């Protein structure tokens, strides 16, 4: 079974949310308006004066469904969140990577390389699909330069060089 973590937005003033077996029920003026299976919901956003039963709040926390309250105008008020699980060592690893210049350069160059490759693919598609552009020599030059940048980005050793190559690629892509 595929789990689509949909978000339920409750925006009707005076709505009341409660649990009925494994479903969430939305009542307005004591009349059931909506009943959804809880396993299809990832978050519930409540805007304005929405009432929620304590049992339903506990249930959301227990099974990991985010229950968030906002004012009528969308200002954050509160969040009900269940127990957090996770590996502390795993959460600390990104900070260790950020402190290591070598690892940071490796990740940054991979990301920027993907951006350059993507922009190059957009230009190639434009050339293929638009006969007017096929005569534009500047686009062909940009494609050649970005091809060289893709090779260069794999050999860089500093974050400043990665940033410079990203800027150079962006300047070429948006030229003309």
Helix content: 40-55%
Number of helices: 5
SSE string: EEEEEEHEEHHHH
Largest sheet: 4 strands, mixed
Instruction: Give a count of the beta strands, DSSP E runs of length 2 or more.
Output: 8
Strand content: 15-25%
Main sheet: strand order: 1-5-7-8
Supply the helix-strand structural class.
alpha/beta
Total domains: 2
Cα-atom Rg, whole angstroms? 26 Å
N→C terminal distance: 50 Å
Instruction: List low-pLDDT spans.
Output: none
Q: Tell me, what's the shape?
A: elongated
Mean pLDDT equals 89
Could you characterize what this model shows?
With 176 residues, the protein is an alpha/beta fold. It has 2 domains: 6-80, CRISPR-associated endonuclease Cas1, N-terminal domain (Ribosomal Protein L15, Chain: K, domain 2), CATH 3.100.10; 88-173. 47% of the residues lie in helices and 24% in strands. It is built from 5 helices and 8 strands; from the N terminus they run E-E-E-E-E-E-H-E-E-H-H-H-H. It has a 4-stranded mixed beta sheet. Helix 3 (101-129) runs antiparallel to helix 4 (137-153), helix 3 runs parallel beside helix 5 and helix 4 (137-153) packs antiparallel against helix 5 (159-173).
């Amino acid at each position: 079974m595929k789990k689509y973590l949909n978000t339920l937005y409750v925006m009707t003033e005076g709505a009341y949310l409660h649990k009925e077996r494994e479903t969430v029920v939305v009542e307005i003026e004591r009349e059931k308006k909506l009943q959804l299976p809880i396993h299809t919901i990832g978050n519930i956003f409540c805007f304005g004066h929405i009432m929620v039963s304590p049992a339903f709040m506990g249930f959301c926390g227990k099974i990991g469904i985010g229950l968030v309250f906002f004012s009528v105008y969308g200002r954050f008020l509160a969040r009900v969140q269940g127990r957090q699980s996770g590996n502390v060592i795993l959460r600390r690893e990104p900070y260790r990577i950020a402190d290591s210049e070598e690892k940071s350069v490796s990740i940054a160059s991979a990301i920027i390389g993907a951006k350059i490759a993507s922009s190059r693919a957009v230009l190639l598609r434009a050339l293929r699909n638009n006969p007017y552009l096929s005569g534009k020599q500047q686009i062909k030059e940009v494609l050649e330069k970005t091809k060289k940048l893709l090779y260069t980005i794999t050999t860089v050793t500093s974050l400043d060089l990665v940033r410079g190559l990203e800027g150079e690629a962006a300047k070429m892509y948006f030229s003309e």
